[in-house]
Design a protein that fits this description.
about 60% helix; 12 strands; single chain; Glucose Permease (Domain IIA); elongated; about 400 residues; alpha+beta
Amino acid sequence: MSRKALLIFSVLSLMFTISFSQTAKQKALEKRRYQLQQEIVRVNKLLFKNQKKEENILGYLSDLNKRIQVRSDLIKAIVAEANFFKNEISKNEKLKSELEKELKFLKEDYAQMILKSYKSKSEQSKLMFLLSSKNFYQGYKRFRYMQQYADFRKKQGDTIVAKTKKIAEITSDLKVQRNKKEALAKKNKVEADQLAFEKADQLDLMKQIKSKENQYLADLKKKQVEERKIDLEIERVIKEAIAASRARTKAKKTKIDVNAKPSGFALTPEGRALANRFEQNRGKLPWPVSEGVVTRNYGVIRHPVYKNNTIDSRGIWIATKKNANARAVFKGTVLAIQSVSGRYAVYVQHGNYISLYNNLDKVYVAKGQKVNLKQPLGVVFTDKVSGNTELKFQVWRDSKKQNPIYWLAKM
């Protein structure tokens, strides 16, 4: 391959790579916006459809904060996408202007070439030019020159056609890009207006809460104490299950997994194989409800209303529709069923992993029962005061809690 051909190939490859990269970026921005739009729909449907504002003002404000956060993220996504089109429009307008200048020059040059060719009486002049050669070599050279001149004219004509076509394509792209940018601007206006309305509602609620702050803080602390008791009970159940598994293995002298931790479950080869399959599906597990919105994240987080108050969240809380079923995220065995204050928690064991489904109103399964992927385990409890239906979902590896978000597939 010649150096010129190699250079042309390199330039074309670079242009293709840039074009592919821009298309990928545009699709990623569109996908992000669409995901946030869908989350807004889920938030409205699952958090506000049955919400009782007057009876649960703290919960309502917490949910409103969630909607404000998602809408703010949506506005940022819309702005990012609009800026992408703004940059693309600017680049295409510049490219179109350059091509139009080149095309104008090419057309003028081509017109002069045609005019000169016409004035020279074309075919007769070519023949005389050849016949007047002093020798064969000069005649051949003149013949080659005429061929190259004809080729140059053809290539110049082709270039004019190609540039004209390219300008038409860019003009069409610009029209599409401007329409998309305008549509995004309208979307942004709608979302910004709605956000302003929600923030005004948020401010009004904060004033109402402030007037009864001591009462609300006392209720909050009471709930946190109850939640801590449940967390300790969950830890106790898991540690006792681990101890029981090791005791059974010791009594039966069963062959166990040599890689198992001394403080973890005593695993048979079958149990280790199941745990391995569970690990391989990290980030791919189905959600424990068919439709949901995360209302509380994992880890030490600030309270959504009282920012100075922190929460040690052992899992995630997922708001779902009324009468929704909690479903197994992976095949396994029901390790335990726990009853706390009239609600239930189902523990499903997957080797040395446990998926925990808490805040159930009814349970469909029994201890020791084998369950399959997405098998219904029970009905998620609906709070009569708030109107919310929330599943409290946890993942454990032996006695160590995990962040469930890292295990579940992206919604």
